[in-house]
Amino acid sequence: MSSPCSVDAASHATHPALHLRDARDAHVVFEAVRLGVLPLITRRLTANEREQLVSGNVFVWEEAEHKQGGLERWTDGRRWSQSRMRGDYLFYEEKIETTPEEKEAKAARRARRTLDPFAAPPAPIRRQDRPSKPDGLTKQTYSTHVHTRRGESPRKWHIVAYFSGDDYTRLPVVENYEYLRNIRVPEGIFTSAKGNIARFGHVLEDADGHESSHAGMDYPEWPPSPWSPVSRGATTTDRPMSSSSSSSSSGAQRTPSHYSVGQPRPGSSSGALPRLSTVVPVGLLTPPSSPMYPTSPSGVPSNYQPLTAEDRRALSSFRLGL
């Protein structure tokens, strides 16, 4: 695997066979795209290309308006679970397709709403209640801001990788490709997309065009990822625990100064992304209650001035006799 020519095996993908373990792997692929070693995806996948999605496929695409040469959202024609956070990534499990019964029920609900808009329709099947697809894929996503030229607005890039079952243990990693292993990621090129987690959930669509919402807060706390920089040194065999243990934060990764893929990666926690559980929800960031005016120890506002004799005479003149 000493040449990028193998990428031609899946010309519709940025890379045909690669497993991403953490944010640094993603940054290496991003840098390869920036240097022109790997292609940036600038169009939506065709129906045929969607059917050809296989484990190991990796796609890098730019979020931008179509007229600007980017994609507004990523579509692959499949149904996915809500996102879960693990390590440096968001994960989605493939769900079964819409059944004929569901399609009939959906048509019946529409007809019922037309006849009686005020009738309470039966509850549709929720995304989280839909069974997982046997032998389905798991989608792995990460996003970053790319700073290309000083003074220009950063570009928003996303990476989407697919794998299935436990075959990620057999997929190549960046160290297995010479043209990736020798890439050095410069400091300041890729910065965190933290703060755009909710937005990132809106650029992924399922088969019916419904946007996949980020719902990592709906799931229990996950233990630290075994393949994140916290616990992984220079080894290349550490992989996710399972495809069902989907998930991760989307990018509070700080780009290190310079690192080579072939160099051992430090095991310190400084390169790890913060857990979502450590981020205070915005709704809880309310100011503490406080009196409108400062008060004295007696409870009387400190800026209150006693009434003068003239004030008291004026008030007495307004009193009405009963």
From TrEMBL:
Residues 251-271 have a biased composition (Polar residues). InterPro entries: Gti1/Pac2. It holds the Pfam family Gti1_Pac2. It comes from Ganoderma sinense ZZ0214-1. It comes from the Eukaryota. GO terms for molecular function: DNA binding. This is Uncharacterized protein. Residues 114-150, 208-308 are annotated as: Disordered.
